[in-house]
Specification:
The chain is α+β, with helices and mostly antiparallel strands and 81 residues long. It is built from three helices and six strands, in the order E-E-E-H-H-E-E-E-H. It has one domain.
């Protein structure tokens, strides 16, 4: 099953490693550091038309990708079920 994040981007549900609420997790310096490193390495893809609410970590072909999404984490989790 595929899960859509926004901007016509979708990934296979088995490739999803984790879904995080951006407002809550970005309060941690470790999360901010992780996102900075991912952005520097080119692993971040913004699929949000507006301010992102969540981010999804996916493992695709030996590469981790972080997708920023304007959808709430609850919405993304419901799409997985």
């Amino acid at each position: 099953m595929y899960v859509a994040f926004g901007k016509e981007k979708s990934v296979f549900s088995n490739d999803i490693v984790a879904i995080f609420d951006l407002d809550i997790t970005s309060q941690s310096h470790l999360t901010r550091q992780f996102l900075r490193k991912a952005e520097k390495s080119g692993a971040v893809e913004n699929t949000a038309d507006d301010i992102p609410k969540s981010f999804v970590i996916c493992k695709e072909k030996d590469r981790n990708t972080v997708y920023l999404s304007q959808m709430a984490t609850a919405t993304l989790v419901k799409r997985l079920l």
